[in-house]
Amino acid sequence: MSGWVIYWVLILDEIWETCNSIACLLLLFVIAGWIYYAFCPKKFKQKCKRCCFWITIIFAIAAMGATFIPKTKQAVLIYVIPKIVNNEQIQQIPDKLLEIANKQLDEWINEFSE
After folding, report:
1. In Å, what is the CA distance from 108 to each residue of 54, 96, 104, 111?
2. What is the domain partition of the chain in residue ranges?
3. pLDDT tens, residue by residue, 65-110
4. Residue 37: CB partners within 8 Å, gap ≥ 6?
5. Residue 104 half-sphere exposure toward CB, CA atoms < 13 A
6. Cα separation, 87 vs 39, whole angstroms
7. Which of 5, 7, 52, 99 could connect to 33 by a Cys-Cys bridge, CB 3.0–4.6 Å?
8. Which 8-state DSSP code applies to residue 94?
């Protein structure tokens, strides 16, 4: 794994938080914009509709980013677990070491589900 990949994996949390913050803020703008559109004068309807449409599109993109970008721990697990499971040397590890690893993985899984 290169340094560049490690950097992007470590910065995933910040990217996710940014997308989530933008999506929350834009959701407020979308709701306010469409409410304003419903009650605005006819001469502003077309501009208001176009503005609301683009804010809605940007909100959808930010919401998808917040939904589909994994957090750092999730990305590491996605990358590491298949390598561990498919490694023949690791499959010959003593049972007690596997129990410890399983307990730690269970703790991490519980963290992600919260």
Report:
1. 39, 19, 6, 5
2. 3-68, 72-113
3. 888 988 888 888 888 888 877 887 766 777 788 788 888 888 888 8
4. 45, 48, 49, 52
5. 9
6. 63
7. 52
8. -
